[in-house]
Amino acid sequence: QVxxxxxxxxxxxxxxxxxxxxxxxxxxFSYYRMGWFRxxxxxxxxxxxxxTWSGGTTNYADSVKGRFTISRDNxxxxxxxxxxxxxxxxxxxxxxxxxxxxxxKYEFWGQGTQVxxxx
Length: 119
Description:
11 strands, 119 residues, single chain, seven-stranded mixed β-sheet
C-alpha cells in the first residue's frame, strides 16, 4: 500500500520559515517527479512546486518563487519544501503528491499538513 506522509507544518509568524517533509512508503518514487500542492479554506487546491527525479528541474507557482525551495531526498524516498518569508496568504493545508507512472498525473496524495501564518 502506497503512503505519502507529510510533516513539519505548524504555526509561524509572518516572515518566518518552515520546512515540510514528505516520506513515501510502499513503492519507490526515486525515478518520478514529486510535487507539493496546497489548499486554503474555501479555495481550490493549487500547485506549489514540483521537482524531477534527478532534482535537475524544478518549477514553482509564481506566488512562491524566490521564497520556497523544493528538494528531493531519494534515500528517504521523499521530498522537502523549505518555506521562507512566509506570508499570511500561505496559510493552507499542504499536500505532497506523486504519479503512478512516470510522466503521469498525480495519483498518490498525502493526508496533508497544516501551515498557519499569523500576521
